[in-house]
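Q: What structure does this chain adopt?
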Amino acid sequence: MDSPSTGDSLSQEESFEDVVAHMMVMAEELKRSIASSEMDFMVPQWTGQMDGMVARLDFLIRKVMDDPVDDVKRDLAGHCRAKVIETFQALLKHTVTKKVRTADSSTDGSHLFFDEEMQGQAAVARMAELSIVVHHMVLPKHNLQQQLPNDQCTNDETTNRKEIEVIIDAYSNYQKQILRQRAKPSIAFLASWRQENRNSS
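A:
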């Protein structure tokens, strides 16, 4: 399966429409790459792609702020934001919940949560961070939104807050699983040592 391309730097020559098209392609490539079993390779690469999408989303939002009455640009930027949030959620959920085969899986059937020591943990933390960042990248309200009652205006904020809480919970649970996973060999060794001492006494 093709992995996402790495040429993600935002060119100054790219137009608003170019950035929108590029983001749609990037989102689809990222979602397809979830099927890859090589998570130790894919996760650090995903963070690079996610950084590129955040930079492009920031570009789109700034363009909307420069021309707040352009509803077409606003709708396109809003669609891209929703697509980025959906893609990031899928990547993070896959990373923190999927168990991957270990080197000796063929003999003992063990499958573990993704854990590549410091580099891997930093990549997963960055994924969670970027997933939260995009929820705070909000499009400026247009005139109609400003005239809505407060309870309707706060719906999006409430949804954002709940989705951020889901991200934090998912990452926290993942870290707990990693700690348990790392402790298992020591616990198993201690149990074996105690059993041997009982048998010898």
